[in-house]
Amino acid sequence: MNQLMAKILDKSAIVGVVGLGYVGLPFAVEKAKVGFRVLGIDENPERTERINRGENYIGDVKDEELRALVTSGKIVALTGFERVPEMDVIVICVPTPLTKNLTPDLQYIEKVTSEIAPRLRAGQLISLESTTYPGTTEEVMLPILSESGLRVEKDFYLAHSPERVDPGNKCYTTKNTTKVVGGIGPNSLQVALSFYSQTVEQVVPVSSAKAAELVKVFENTFRAVNIALVNEIALLCDRMGLSVWEVLDAAFTKPFGIMPFYPGPGVGGHCIPLDPHYLEWKAKELNFNTHFIALAGEINRRMPEFVREKALRVLNGIGLAASKSNILILGGAYKRGQSDWRESPAIDVIRMLLNEGANVSYSDAHVPEIRGHGLEMRSVALTEEVLNRTDLVIIVTDHSDVDYDWVVRKSRHVFDTRNATRAVKVHRERITLL
Question: What is the rounded distance in angstroms from the CA atom of residue 347 to the CA atom of residue 333?
C-alpha cells in the first residue's frame, strides 16, 4: 500500500483506463495532463487507432491536448488486456445498459473484471466508475477478482467512484466536478482518495463502495423524477388548453423552494433513461417497491407517444393525413450540442410516425446517420428546398446552431417540443408548442 501511495503521489504510477468513450477518454486526458502515463483499453480498434494517431472523437476533449499527450507518449491506446500487470491503477468506464426487460446488464463489467483477474498483481487499485446498482463492486467484481488468490485490502484495493460527466458542459468538467469515492474498506478508500485527488479539485469520501454507487443512481433518479413531473404537467396543460411553458416560466420566478426542470419529447442519453431502473431493480431484490421511480419512468417513456399523437392533431388541423404528409424531424441527438443519439426520443418519434405511413426524414448536423432500432437513415441538409417540401417540422432537439426564426419563416408549420422557438416573433401562428 505504501509503495502504491508513493507512486500515486509522485505520479510515477501507470494508469489504465478501460473504456475510451465519453467518460474514459476525458479522464485519461486529465490524468496524463498532470503527469501520469496512461494506457487506455478499448475493444473498438477504430477508436484505439484514432487515439494513437492523435485524432480526437470526443467533444469534451481538446484536439491539441490529446495530440500532444499521444505524441509525448503519455497516452497509448490498446485493444487487449496484456499490459494490465504494468498498471498500478485501473479505472473501469464501460457501459451499463439495460436488458429489454429493464433489468441491469452487467456483461461489460463482468467481462472486464474477468480479463483483469488472471493478470492481477499485488499493489494495484481497481476503481469502477460505471453507473450501476448499489452492491455491484462488492458483490459482482470482488468475487471475480478474488479468484486471483489475492486479498482485497491487503494485496489489492477496490473502490467505486461514479462518473459525473455532463457532455457538452462548458462550466463543469472532469477536473472541477466534485468526485465521490467509496472503498471496499478503509485502505481501498485511502488509496482511491489519494489517486483522485491528484486530478480532481474536490473529492468527497463516503463510507463504502455501495454508498458511492447509490449516490450516482440517486442523482440521476432525482432528475428523472423531476423531469417526469414537468412532463406530466405538460400533458395536463395540453388537456386544459394552457401553455406549459408560460406556467413554468412564471413558477420559476419564485426565488426559493423550486428548481427549474423542463418538459420535452422524452428523455435520452446514457443516464436518465437507464440508471433509475438499476435502483428500482435492486430495491425489488430487497422486497421494496420504489413507486416514484417506476412512475417517473412510465411518464417519461410516454412522451414520444404524446408527440406522435399531437403531431397527428397538428397535421389534421392543416388538412393532412399522416400517410400523405412529409415530416422533418429537426434533431436526432438526445441533447443540445451533442452527437450522441443513444436513447434519443427522436428514435421513437420517427418510428411511430413511420408506422403512421408518414414520409419521415431528419436533419441534424451533429448526427450524420442513425443506424439501429430498426432505422437506417442519413441526415438531410437543412435547406430552403427541404423545408419547402415539408408539411410539418418537429423540433425534437434544440441545437443552438439552428436559426429557428429562419426555420419558421420557411416552414408550413412547426411543432416545437423544446420551446426552441421562444425568441421567434413573426409567424407565431405557424408554431405549435408541446
Answer: 9
Tell the residue number behind the cell numbers 500500500, with chain if given.
1
Which of 63, 71, 75, 84 shows the shortest CA–CA distance to 24? 75
Torsion of CA 387, 339, 228, 204, to 10 degrees: -160
Among residues 93, 171, 237, 271, which one is catalytic?
271
Three-state SS for 100-162 is CCCCECCHHHHHHHHHHHHHCCCCEEEEECCCCCCCHHHHHHHHHHHCCCCCECCCEEEEECC
Residues of the chain with pLDDT under 50: none
Q: Is 271 a catalytic residue?
A: yes
pLDDT in tens, 73-106: 999 999 999 999 999 999 999 999 888 788 889 9
Give the count of beta carbons closer than 10 Å to the beta carbon of residue 68: 15
Are 318 and 412 in contact by the 8 Å Cβ rule? The answer is yes
Distance CA 326, CA 391 (A): 5
Rounded Cα distance, 196 and 235, in Å: 44
Q: Which of 9, 189, 17 is nearest to 89 (CA)?
A: 17
Residues paired with 415 in a beta bridge: 394, 432
Strand-pairing partners, residue 91, are 17, 127
d(CA 380, CA 378): 6
In angstroms, the first-to-last Cα distance of the chain is 57
- Check: CATH 3.30.70.420 for 2-207? no
CATH superfamily of the domain spanning 227-433: NAD(P)-binding Rossmann-like Domain (3.40.50.720)
pTM, 2 dp: 0.89
Q: What is the dihedral of CA 373, 277, 416, 422, to 10 degrees?
A: -140
